[in-house]
Design brief:
single chain, alpha/beta, Potassium Channel Kv1.1, Chain A, 2 domains, four-stranded mixed sheet, three-stranded mixed sheet, 7 strands, 38% helix, elongated, KCTD7/14_C, SKP1/BTB/POZ_sf
Length: 243
Amino acid sequence: MSISSEHKPLRKQVTGSLHTLSPIVELNVGGEMYTTTLSTLKKHPGSKLAEMFTGQPKLRTDSEGRFFIDRPGTYFKYILEYLRSNQVPTQCIQDVYKEALFYDIEPLIKQLEDSPQIFGELVARKQFLARVPNYSENIELMIRIARAEAVASRRSSVIVCVVRTEEDAARCQDALNSLDMDKKSVVKFGPWKAAPGISDLLDCIQMDVEAKGYKISFQPHVAEKGFRFKSHDFFYKFLFTWW
């Protein structure tokens, strides 16, 4: 009497050196499954991705024996397409750029940095904001003030003073001294030496606060009657909506 088994053979687990690994590689990237070749993954020696598959195994495997990479799987298809055909993605540029940085694929990083989206962010906007003193710190200060005032409220507001020149900064200080409010709660941006103007900076503030998940809008702040400066020259109210 012959004994037959209906059990399917287990997928071969990877042991030892990757030099003996099949040229066909199965990957589980953040839950997304991919099949490619070892040569594709190692196309750019020195990249972090190539190093993952060079020498001794550096990756865990999932229950099916596929190499597991704990990164967003959705965007790995664009990385893989570039490795296969040198095709630079035209979709999800910001997200693919983050993945290219993680995998350290230098040629793709450089080509993405030449795209309008990344070029505009890194070379234009970021370089402008680098010239605005304490920009990042002020964004965090705005958020702290807004959160502190949000108790039992649907909305909270933060007054922002924006000055582009040293002369405006002096005038703003005079105006601030005339305001009937807690001066510590006013967040001051500027001055700066760059072409973008006040409206550009206001757009950047809104963009970066919204990027942190907050719902925000702004408008010129109108001071009380008798105020000796046009308050909207410097002061803006940023409104946080919580629900």
